[in-house]
Each structure stands twice: as structure tokens, then as C-alpha cells.
Amino acid sequence: MARVTLIDGADTGKTKRERAGGWFVLLVLVVLAVLGGAGYAAAHQVAGDKVPLGTSVSGIDIGGLTRSEAISELREEFEARAAKPIHVKVAGGRSVDVRPDEIGVTIDYAGTVDAAGAEDSWRPDRQWDYFTGGDDVDALVHVDETLLSDQLADLTEGLGVPPKDGEVHFAKDGVSVVNPVAGEAVDPEAAQEAITAAFLEQDDEVELTVTTAEPDIDDADIQQALDDFANPAMSASVTLVFGESDVHLQPRQYATALSMVPEDGVLVPQVDERRITRLVKDATTSGKPVDARIELVDGKPKVIPAKPGVKFEPATVVAAFTDLLVAPEGEREGDVEATVREAAFSTADARALGIKKKVSEFVTYFPYAEYRNVNIGRAAELIDGTVLKPGEVFSLNDTVGERTAENGFTIGYIISNGVLVKDYGGGVSQMATTTFNAMFFAGLEDIEHKPHSFFIDRYPEGREATVAWPTVDLSFRNDTDYGVLIHADVQPGSYSAQGVVTVQMFSTKVWDIESETSGRYNYRAPATRHLQTPDCEPFTGYSGFDVDVARIFRVHGEDEVDHTEEFHTSYTAADSVVCGPPPKQDQP
């Protein structure tokens, strides 16, 4: 037992000695750590937010300065430099002294100092950089490009040729191109770099060179503009649909509303809202709708489209129109949101009438009299433009109205009870006869016509008509499947020339008409009248006779006679009129 105790005692002493050594090492490490931490804290205390030692900015030493001190130092130095002129000259051109502060040269002082390494941080690399990382750095410079551009413009005025951008233009006959042209100019970026470098390096002179200047809008930009917009826009019409009504806009109509303007180096399409809105308003109405009509344009019938009553927002119309401009052919039609009131007689209705060409024409002449010029001209004005739909009846009295001063007529000679008397509307029968013959050769159905009581030699015998308000009328029916447009025109007579009356009818040709007139027969001798009325007009009479006219119908383009219509006319003798009492008879 004693031996065992001794051994245990020896082991215990050894363990105690080992533990004492471990604590010593730990103590040494702790002391070293405290000493190192104190040194690191001292290093941070020295560095703070200062600029790394040995740092300079464009030759200005700011190493070891605090951030605020460095900013102040740079501001003082650079503001002094900015006020000193730099002599800028252009090779082959003029020169000028430019103060950096006059072209907007400024320094980002805070950004420059921060970029130079000024910061307050506990990071080890920050402490290392402060003591070892100093370097020469460039100041962060900003130049006002507008002010610099103005100065360069003055410097280079008359020097070289400025570049010319390509252009795309729209006209009624299509798209045209102005090709881009390279020029010669001072490169603004190179000029800015040279002046900035001189400012930073305190050089007092800069020389700029003229180089090739490429236009912003070059050939590639032009081709892209043509492919993406211009050519598609002018390739075909655009149709805007308002309810049941279409507004067709042809390229020649909207060309002046299109343009392409440069923007960020490319050509951007623009649409003139005012012009497009005006085109749509011309084709519509903001109030009551307007029916389609048919008018003569350059001697040919043309459908004038109906105008629906439409209320719309211009921006909505322009947006729809612009989208359709680049659509392929066959897809250039689109609905437009709007409030629409449709016309009673649509454009489609007008086209369906088939009024395409002249189917008949007749001309008569009249001796000069001012009342004839007035009355026949007024009747023509009221008849002109009349459209007869299939089955409709034309009435001259209904169309022309009562011959009164209020209706535009004047007093002239008419035939009443076989003699000439004065009344309003004298001469209108000339228009009746001319219209009757135009109807005759158009192959329309005769409803009512009355020849003059006695023959008037300026009219075709058996093919003439007279009218009197309201009892004697000229009327006929459009018994074809097509509409008929009547055009009436008068060239007034003068002392040296006869007046001319022309009536034309336009439709789709149905019949080829031939007229055959018999010889005169059943002659009747005139009598003599003695009148003692104040308005008596003397007249030399002539014989009356009978005559027959045949209207021969052939289907248009064929030789075979389809049917014939007979007109019989019996003219009374035109009595001679003597103004005064009859002669006394001899007494037996």
C-alpha cells in the first residue's frame, strides 16, 4: 500500500507542473492579442476617413488628408484652374481662348475623393491601403455638352462641311428619299477629352483636328424607315369603319399627314392628328347624316359617298389609322369606336344604281331673247342633277315648280289659246322639248307629253312637248333596272348667237333607239284673227298638218327590233293675228 501511495504522489506533481505551463502560454497569447488589438485600433485611429498616403489627383497631393480636407483642397485648386483660359485652335481654322468654367467643366469633388480611397472602415484591407495604397488618380470631370457644342460651332464656323442626315418624305405621288451625306467636323467627344485633359494637366493649349463626320441618320436608317413604315404606309388605301359606313382614305389624300423625324439616331414615324381628323370629318358629318349622291365630274358620273353622322375622339381615329398603315394589303380595314347615325341612301345604294355612262343626249337652239335666257336657264338649273331610281317618275312641273318671280322666272311670250301672250315662264317649253327627246332616245317610258298646238320649226316635228303650270306636264317613268341621272345645261343666247339647250341622261345602256318620222299630211289652212286687246301681238300664220313618229327599240348591241312605239301629232293651223278691228264689209 505504501508503494502505491508513493506512485500516486509522484503522478500528481507532474500534472500540476503541466497545468502551470499551459496557463503561461495562454497568458502570453492574451497579452499579445491585447497588444495587437491596441495596435490595430491605433492604426484605424490614424487612418480614419483619410485619403491613402501618397495619393494625388491630377497632380494635387491629397494623401493623408481627411475626406473633408481633401475635398476642400481639390475645390480650391480646380476652381483656380477653371478660371484660367485654355487656347483652343482648330487645324486650318480659327482659335479661341476658352475658360473651362465657361463651358460647364465641373469636378465631382466628393466622388473623386471617395474614388481615391477616402473612407472610414475597420476592414484590414482598408488599413493596408491607407499606409501602402497611395496612387495618382484622375478627377471625375463633367462637361456641359450644350455649352461645349456652342463653342465648337463658333470655332468651326465655315470650316468643312457639316454632315447631312438622310430624310424620308411623303407626297401625293409616293415616297421620296434624301440621301445622307458625310461631312467634316470636329469630333465633339474627342474635343471634350482633349479640353478635359488640358484642364487636368494644366496645359494652356489644345489643337483639334477636323475628321469625317458621319450623319446620325445613315443609309441603314433610311432603309429601315422605308421597310418598316414608309413603303407599307403608301402601298394601299386605308379603310376606317364607322358602324355600317366606310371611310376610304387613299395614300394621295393622307400623304401630307405623314412624316418621319430623327430621334435617337433613327427615323420615327409621326401622324398629323389634325389632318387625319379633317379627312375623316370631310367624309362624315358631326350632325345629321348626308345621303350619297351622283354628280358629273369631268363629264362622267361619279358617286359622291354618303356622310354618316359620326361623333368620335380624334386620338381614337388616329390610333386606328396608324395601326392600319403598316398592315399588309387585304388587312388595311379596321373598326373605329364612335357614335354613328347612318345615311338613308348609302354609298352602296348609289353604286347599285349602275349610273355609269351617257345613254342619250339632245340639243336644241333658240333665238336670242333675254327672257328665254332667264327662264330656260332657271329650268335647267332646277332639273340638273335629278336622279331617277328604277320605277320613279319624272315630272317637269314638280321638278321646276310654278313659274313665278319668287321662283326665279320672268315674263315672256307663251302660247295660249293658239295665240302669243305674255306670262311668267315663257320659253320653258324649250326645256320640255329638249328633255322629252333625251328621254325618247334613252328608251324611258312616256307617261305624259303634249305637243304644241301649232308647229314651231326649231323643234323636231312630232317629237316636242309644251308645259303649262299646273295643267300641262311632261312626265316619264324610269322603267329600267338602273338609275338615271339627268344633266341639263343652257348656253345663253346673244345678239350674235343663238342660245343652246343640252339635256343628257346617264345610266347603263339598255336600249338602242331609232326614230322614224312620216311625211306631213292632212294639211289645214290658217285663218285670220282680228284682236283689239291691249296685249295683242301680230302674227303671220301658217298651215297645220298631221305627222307620225315611230320609236324603234333594239336591245343594246343587237340588230333585231324588239318593239316599236307610235306617236301621232296633229298640229292646228297657226292663225294669223291682226291687231285692230276687222275691215268693214261692203253694204249691198
From TrEMBL:
Transmembrane segments: 21-43
InterPro entries found in the cross-reference section: Glycopeptide_resist_protein, Vancomycin_resist_VanW, YoaR-like_PG-bd
Keywords from the named record: Membrane, Transmembrane, Transmembrane helix
Keyword match Transmembrane: yes
Source species, domain of life: Bacteria
Every YoaR-like putative peptidoglycan binding domain range: 98-204
Keyword Transmembrane: yes
PANTHER family: EXPORTED PROTEIN (PTHR35788:SF1), EXPORTED PROTEIN-RELATED (PTHR35788)
Protein name per Swiss-Prot or TrEMBL: YoaR-like putative peptidoglycan binding domain-containing protein
Organism: Nocardioides humilatus
